[in-house]
Amino acid sequence: MISSENPSAENLNEKEPVKIILAEDDKDDQELFIDALDEADIPSDVTTVENGQQLVDALKDKSQPDPDIIFIDINMPVKGGKQALEEIKGDKDLRDIPAVMLSTWDHPADIEDTFDKGANLYVQKPNSFAGFVLLLKKVFLLHWAKALLRPVISLFFVSEKNISQRD
């Protein structure tokens, strides 16, 4: 497990950093995510895990506070993202933690399956760093209240293609 702080000096005085657990087996994608949060000026404290089992174990570890949000890659070894999501949303102590699914794919069956399993948002991984920054801004600044607190299918799937700089 890697813990990385991503402070933004101006905003830290105003807001507590968002506590995030990122379940992602690809080290490059972990770094991209953390760098994009920094570029998006989202004060955060990110803990990374490399598979769904490590995610579930970290969430059940009561010596650590619950995160504000979890990002879960769908395709991981040991326990995949969908399995981890199902276990988390089936646990009365964990089910209220907002869960954002990450995938390179935009298969309608995957999107619908994760929605049905209780995910709060499904994000297609962008092809560019700028796209990732824009996407994270959208997730944290615009979709937080609407999509994460009461998900509706029309706001559930977010990709680089369906957001614009103006949003």
Walkthrough of the structure:
The modification 4-aspartylphosphate is found at residue 73. The termini are far apart. The relative contact order is 0.14. The chain has one domain: Rossmann fold (3-Layer(aba) Sandwich). Strand 2, helix 2 (27-39) and strand 3 (44-49) form a beta-alpha-beta unit. The chain has helices at 9-12, 27-39, 52-60, 81-89, 108-116, 129-149, 153-156, and strands spanning 2-6, 18-23, 44-49, 69-73, 99-103, 121-124, 157-158. The chain has seven helices and seven strands, in the order βαβαβαβαβαβααβ. The protein has a seven-stranded mixed β-sheet, with helices on both faces.
Second rung of CATH, namely the architecture: 3-Layer(aba) Sandwich
Numbering strands along the chain, what is their spatial order in the largest sheet?
1-3-2-4-5-6-7
- Contiguous runs where pLDDT drops below 50 for at least 5 residues: 2-13
> Sheet bearing the most strands, described?
7 strands, mixed
CATH class: Alpha Beta
CATH topology name, in short, is: Rossmann fold
* DSSP E strands, number: 7
Q: Give the CATH H-level superfamily.
A: Response regulator
Rg value: 15 Å
Counting structural domains, the number is 1
Average residue pLDDT:
81
How far apart, in Å, are the first and last alpha carbons?
Answer: 34 Å
Shape summary: globular
Q: What percent strand?
A: 15-25%
